Amino acid sequence: FERMASLETAAEHERILREIESTDTNCIGPTLRSVYDGQEHGLFMEKLDARIRNHDREIEKMCNHHFQGFVDSITELLKVRGEAQKLKSQVTETNRHLQENGKEVKLTTSMEELRQCRVQQRNIATTIDKLTHCLPVLEMYSRLQEQMRAKRYYPALRTLEQLEQTCLPKAGQYRFCSIMAENIPKLRIQIRDTAMSQLRDFLESIRKHSDKIGETAMKQVHKHPETLGLTEFSRHGPTRPARQKGAPAAIRAGMGVNPLSEHDTGILDVEDEEEEDEVPGAQDLVDFSPVYRCLHIYTVLGLRDVFENYYRKQRRKQARLVLQPHSNMHETLEGYRRYFNQIVGFFVVEDHVLHTTQGLVNRAYVEELWELALSKIVAALRTHSSYCDDPDLVLDLKNLIVLFADTLQGYGFPVSQLFDMLLEIREQYGEILLKRWNITFRQVIDQDNYSPIPVSTEKEYRQYTSQCPFQDPELEKLPFPKKLPFSEFVPKVYCQLKEFIYACLKYSEDLHLSSTEVDDMIRKSTNLLLTRTLSHCLQYAIKKKNVGLAELVQVIINTTHLEQSCHFLEEFISNITNVPPDTVNATKLYGTSTFKDARHAAEAEIYTSLNAKIDQFLQLADYDWMAAVPGGENLAASDYLIDLIAFLKSTFSVFTNLPGKVAQTACMSSCKHISTSLMQLLLDPEVRQISMGALHQLDTDVKECESFARAGPVAGFQGDTLLLAFSDLRQLLDLFTQWDWSTYLADYGKPTCKYLRVNPHTALALLEKMKETSRKNNVFAQFRKTDRDRQKLIDTVIKQLRNLIAQHHT
User: Fold this and answer.
1) CA torsion through residues 439, 444, 447, 450, sign
2) What are the residue boundaries of the Exocyst complex component EXOC6/Sec15 N-terminal domain, all occurrences included (predicted)?
3) Is-contact 493 561, C-beta < 8 A?
């Protein structure tokens, strides 16, 4: 209980102490009274003393903490007191001077000086302000002059614009500003004219160097044709893989290129380029900064339309000059190359300008130029290529046109008309080839000896058989030396046919044609070579003067072997074009028919030559048409006929290598011609009289001919087939020599008539000639009975023949 009372007392004393600390001293009387009213005032005093000691300690701590600051403040205060004394002295002195001056005239003077000083200060401030606005004008004008001297016209134009629109209005109305303002239009005109002058220099420079630009672009395509087949052709032309990362600055960023380049050369010098393997890009040669600069300058001047029209007009003029070929362009490939280089260079520049400027030229303008160029190029090629007669030059021209077309196609220009033009030139190329091969074939024909090729070794044999297809198992079994059946003509012609096919194939390369189209083109050209050129040359060989029967025989043998080799030519074409020969609608070679026609012509010429030779022998015939009837001795054949038979025997011995039918036809033709010619001798109107002795001599000659026919000069005739050639003449001579008129007259018209082949007209004509002979021989022997009887008999037979003719031919 006591403890609780002491705690309450302590708490009450604590409350009183807090109240004393927080209450105004005027109000603490009641509080202290309550302490003395209680019994614990001693204890309260102890607490109060403890609280006072506590506060003293805190005050002491606070004083110790701020003592240094207090000392410093006192020190500063002492210094201020000293300065205050000085200020008081100065104010006192100033007051004294003021009092003194106020009493004199100096006050007015001082006030005027002060006013002047204030005016000067104000003027200086105004001048500084004006100079602040004028100095940028002067600095900018100075920069403008430096830019003009350095020919940095586009920045100069921008500076001029800033000077006119910003700086001069702020500077105010000064004479130098007026002079500057007056010079600004002149400077603009100067910049415009200078930029235009640089553009003209650029246009003139690219006109002169367009062939170099085009040559470079075409070299790129030639050295890196794989760029044509990439996923996307470079917008700035075919780029080399090795240099794509280091593309020229003018190509690298299109309109992002800094058009303010300070190089105005137009065409960059690349002659000292040491990299032999590196072909510079087409735009590596050209600095387009004059175009960009002039474009931007005219744009800033508000004359962009004027510039665009001028540029396009000038480039159209240059295009017309570029597209005008030289009159002697067709004479050399270099002329064509220079022509194409200039055109490629022109359009490379236009394509670059198209893709690196915003609207200076547009796609429609470039396409219009290209259409114009394409029509003129095609017309020029048609005209100039028609003068060319050298197939090698035409082939080089074709390759150049392909390179030209591929280059421009890489820049996005349509070139289908050029490839159509190449197909037109292909026809001309074919005609030129035909002319050259015509000369070649004629040389082969003129140099041929028309003799089988002798081979003495296996190597020679294989050499000839490798040149042309030939297989003969029987000939291979024979020992060396031996002879091939054909002459040098066959392997040479076959090799030339293959060379012609290769020449046609060379032209067909790179024309973007399918294998079938190439195959068809080659076959058609080869057919023309066979049916026109070679056929005419073979006709020339057959028809030329002084060609002998041996030569004609060799021509037939040669054409036979060439005919057999035609299917090898078919296979050869199929192998080089990869088109099977049995492809549907594939053109077939006409070689078989060509060589057949030539062989038939040679055969006909053999028949004609043989007959002509026979005629030469027959011209030597000298019959005595008035010869008397021989006595008991045997008559000998005429000398000319013996020589003729000997000639025919030697000739037909050469025919052993000919096809049997040809030899048989030649032999039959010769015998028929002899028979017909002898018949014509009998019936010749100039021979008016024929004696029986002459008929007996002719009968002997015919028997010699029949003996020749019976001996079989050419193998293959069945029985006495060859004798039929002389049957007309034989029956006629038998009728007269045997004087078997009764049989003839009795059996005439019957199929079994012995003299079926004797024409009554022929018999009548011959009897008339015998009647004349008999009449002249019996002028002085008319009184001999036998002669008179024979004369009457002839007259009787003539009368009966005339009746017979009248009966059967009315």
Assistant:
1) negative
2) 47-218
3) no
Could you count the other beta carbons within 10 Å of the beta carbon of residue 509?
12
Which pair of tokens denotes residue 238? Answer: 């075919």
Q: Is 230 left (phi over 0), alpha (psi -120 to 50) or beta?
A: beta
- Output the CA–CA distances (angstroms, integers) from residue 694 to 628, 682, 683, 793, in the order listed: 7, 10, 13, 20
Query: What would the pLDDT profile of 371-397 be if each residue is shown by its tens digit?
Result: 998 899 889 888 888 888 888 888 888
DSSP three-state, residue 293: helix
Helix (H) or strand (E) holding 484: strand 482-484
Task: Measure CA 670 to chain center.
Answer: 60
Give dist(CA 282, CA 411) in Å, integer. Answer: 12
The alpha carbon torsion through 107, 110, 116, 119 (nearest 10 deg) reads -80
> Mind listing the domains of the chain with CATH numbers?
9-61 (no CATH), 174-223+284-413 (no CATH), 431-604 (1.10.357.30), 620-808 (1.20.58.670)
- Closest-CA residue to 353 (of 251, 260, 218, 268): 251
SS3 string of 183-211?
HHHHHHHHHHHHHHHHHHHHHHHHHHHHH
Say if CB 398 and CB 507 are below 8 A apart.
yes
Distance CA(662)–CA(651), nearest Å, equals 13
Residue 187 has φ and ψ, to the nearest 5°, of -65, -40
Mapped onto helix, strand or coil, the DSSP state of residue 144 is helix
**406, burial (CB in 10 Å: exposed 0-12, middle 13-18, buried 19+):** buried
